[in-house]
Amino acid sequence: MYRLRLFEKLLKKSKKIVIYCHQNADPDAICSAYAIKFLIKNLKKGVIVKIITPGGMNALAKRVVDFIPIESITEILSNKADLIILADTNNIRQLGNHYESLTNLKIPLVIIDHHTTHLDLKKSTSCIIINEKVSSTCEIVYEMYKRYKLKPSKKIANVILIGIVYDTRHFILASSKCLINVAELIHFGASIEDAISIMRVPLDKPEIIARLKALQRLVISRADNWIIAASEVNSYQASVARILNYIGAHVSIVGGRNNDRFIMSLRCKENFHKKTGIHLGKDIAIPIAERLNGSGGGHAMAAGINGIGDIDDIIEKCIDKIREKLS
Ligand SMILES: [Mn+2]
């Protein structure tokens, strides 16, 4: 499945290896980088391997390294390395302020990832280990351990499991094969309870209060057969919008004030987007923001608008726009 011969050849020639996570590294990025580091150290004794997290890690990844120490640095080292590996990313543009230092570098580049590839990179990449069918880079790395008949230590097994738990959204996206791999990792000492509890961040009190206040102020509307929940709260709009979808609303619209401006978060369920074709960013947030001289954008199922105006009025505009798109 993976062209590992080339990978081995490159390893043979290298003494100093740098493994890059994407900027704002998430648990799959940092955990896969760590597992790759030890895979390499097993395949080649005496090699120096450093993990770089350009610009640092996200909150969950920081939580992971608090529980399981993983050493990483943020400085630019690419000019001192003789091999670069990208973990959980296939685009050097995602390496933040390290991007420039890598653009003209004439050293081999290896990509280990599960995201869709950017064709332009294929030309300049020496070795591509990509599987878009798996839900995490950690799973690819575990497959590599198996190919080399390397038994992961308890720590490595735990680290790989954490990456899998994170990127499969607690196994919702896990394939049967992934679950078999998880069973093997448990056999090597990984704890599913630990992995899940590390990934479950307790909510701050202000966020709980924001969610509850938003529920008190909830307004329910309909557009065809779809249920839209709207509310107003001055902080955690995105968190509230997510929770409204979680409890069943097909679309949620949550606005709040920040001085004289408003911030609005829009979220919808996957089936709403799939059945209606409505793209919250392009069809709702952007046109409404344009009318208000504000700014808007986002993805199909998550978008935001901000600008100057009355919140109730803008919620109404969003609902009207959804109804218009449905008719
Ligand atoms: Mn990932």
Count of all domains: 2
- Cross-sheet strand order for the largest sheet: 6-7-8-9-11-10
**Highest CATH level, the class of the largest domain:** Alpha Beta
* SSE sequence, one letter per element: HEHEHEHEHEHHHHHEEHEEHHEEH
Assign the CATH superfamily of the largest domain.
inorganic pyrophosphatase (n-terminal core)
- Strand content bin: 15-25%
- Overall outline: elongated
Q: Radius of gyration in whole Å, from Cα?
A: 23 Å
CATH architecture of the largest domain: Alpha-Beta Complex
Q: Main beta sheet: strand number and arrangement? A: 6 strands, mixed
Helix content: 40-55%
- Total beta strand runs: 11
Going by helix content, strand content and strand pairing, the class is: alpha/beta
Mean pLDDT figure: 93
How far apart lie the N and C ends? 48 Å
Output the number of helix runs.
14
CATH fold type of the largest domain: inorganic pyrophosphatase (n-terminal core)
Write up this protein.
The protein is of the alpha/beta class and 327 residues long. It has two domains: 4-199, inorganic pyrophosphatase (n-terminal core), CATH 3.90.1640.10; 205-326, Diaminopimelate Epimerase, Chain A, domain 1 (Roll), CATH 3.10.310. 46% of the residues lie in helices and 19% in strands. The chain is built from 14 helices and eleven strands. The chain has helices at 4-13, 27-43, 59-67, 99-103, 119-124, 137-147, 154-167, 176-187, 192-199, 205-216, 237-246, 270-276, 280-292, 311-326; strands spanning 16-21, 48-52, 83-87, 109-113, 127-130, 219-223, 226-232, 251-258, 261-268, 295-298, 302-307. The strands form two sheets. A six-stranded mixed beta sheet has the order 6-7-8-9-11-10, with helices on both faces. It has a five-stranded parallel beta sheet with strand order 2-1-3-4-5, with helices on one face. The longest helix has 17 residues, at 27-43. It starts with a helix and ends with a helix. The relative contact order is 0.09. The model has no long low-confidence stretch (mean pLDDT 93). It binds manganese (II) ion.
